[in-house]
Design a protein that fits this description.
Elements: H1 8-21, H2 27-34, H3 39-55, H4 67-225, H5 231-316, H6 328-346
Helix pairs in contact: 1-2, 1-3, 2-3, 4-5, 5-6
């Protein structure tokens, strides 16, 4: 709809003035004559004037007009038509060119819009994939952190148990050393006592033998001196000899008893040595168990270091820049598979 500021009559008067001057009517020239009006309004009135002129092209001129005036009017009309046709052709070419440019611009805009939609779709897909991978990595990171915390607590428990085992081993070692010292002292004391008893018995035996030899010498002397002694005196001598023999037997019996005690003491010493060997074997087993726990702790520590290295690789291999968008979903899937394999190994 045209505005009410410039009417069709104003535009028609401006067109008549232009035709009188021999100029082809155009929107710019009409506006220069009017001095006001929008190009849209003037263009609509000019289009209406051209439409009416096309409709009245075959209408005969009014009758009763003088021939000279009629010729002049026809000449002006033909000139106006030619000028209008030239201007119309020029404007049509210009309009066709602008329409073609507008079509090309619209097609270009459509292509750009389509490209923008495709880029938006690709970016949305990539963003969704990135968010999904980020969620997966976050879940894996949380799992790794939980596993790491569990391993750290297990390592602390094993370290505590190892310290307790080492403390228990040290106590066993101290106890074994104390028992060995006590046993050694007891054995030394028993050996000293046995040697002392044996020395006393030997001294007693030697004293008895000396006394016996003295009695025998005295008996021989008495027998030689008193060969003709009475039978009763000989009986007394024989009884005395019997008593001496009994004392000798008693001394031998005590010596045998001491030897038996010595054997018992030696057996007790061997039992103590066997007990010490058993203790040493138990200590060796305990040391082997401690070494096994240490190796287990080292394996656990190695597994923790491996998990930390895998987590470090997972964090640093995550695509973070727009330059990685061109690598495609195939590289992302390969990276995801490479990240999942250490998780299976860690489990």
């Amino acid at each position: 709809m045209a505005r009410s500021g410039v009417t069709y009559e104003d535009v028609q008067r401006a067109i008549d003035e232009l035709l009188t001057r021999g100029d082809a009517p155009s929107v710019q020239k009409i506006r220069e004559i009017l001095g006001t009006g929008s190009f849209t309004t003037i263009s609509e009135h000019l289009r209406e004037w051209r439409q009416q002129r096309e409709e009245n092209r075959d209408v005969p001129p009014p009758r009763g007009m003088p021939a000279a005036l009629q010729e002049l009017a026809e000449g002006l009309w033909r000139q106006a038509q030619e000028s209008a046709n030239q201007a119309l052709a020029h404007y049509r070419e210009e309009a066709d060119r602008k329409i073609e440019e507008a079509r090309e611009a619209a097609a270009d805009s459509h292509r750009q819009a389509e490209d923008a939609r495709q880029r938006e779709t690709a970016l949305a897909s990539h963003l969704a994939g990135t968010e999904q991978r980020l969620e997966t990595l976050s879940a894996e990171l949380a799992t790794r952190q939980a596993d790491n915390e569990t391993l750290r607590k297990a390592e602390q428990r094993l370290a505590t148990r190892l310290a307790e085992a080492e403390s228990l081993l040290q106590r066993h070692r101290d106890e074994a050393a104390r028992v060995a010292d006590e046993h050694q002292q007891a054995m030394q004391a028993r050996e000293a006592e046995h040697r002392e008893k044996l020395t006393r018995e030997e001294q007693r035996h030697e004293s008895a033998e000396t006394r016996l030899m003295a009695l025998l010498d005295q008996a021989r002397q008495e027998r030689q001196a008193q060969e003709k002694a009475a039978a009763g005196r000989e009986e007394q001598q024989e009884k005395r000899l019997a008593r001496q023999e009994s004392q000798l037997q008693e001394a031998r019996a005590r010596l045998a008893e001491e030897e038996k005690r010595h054997r018992e003491t030696d057996w007790a010493r061997r039992q103590a040595e066997s007990l010490a060997d058993t203790r040493h074997h138990e200590q060796a087993l305990l040391q082997a168990r401690i070494d096994e726990q240490k190796r287990h702790l080292e394996d656990q520590a190695q597994r923790v270091r491996s998990l930390e290295e895998q987590l470090h690789r997972c964090l640093w291999q995550t695509p973070t820049t727009k330059g990685n968008e061109a690598e495609g979903d195939t590289d992302d899937e390969e990276k995801s598979s490479e990240k999942r394999e250490p998780t299976d190994d860690a489990q």
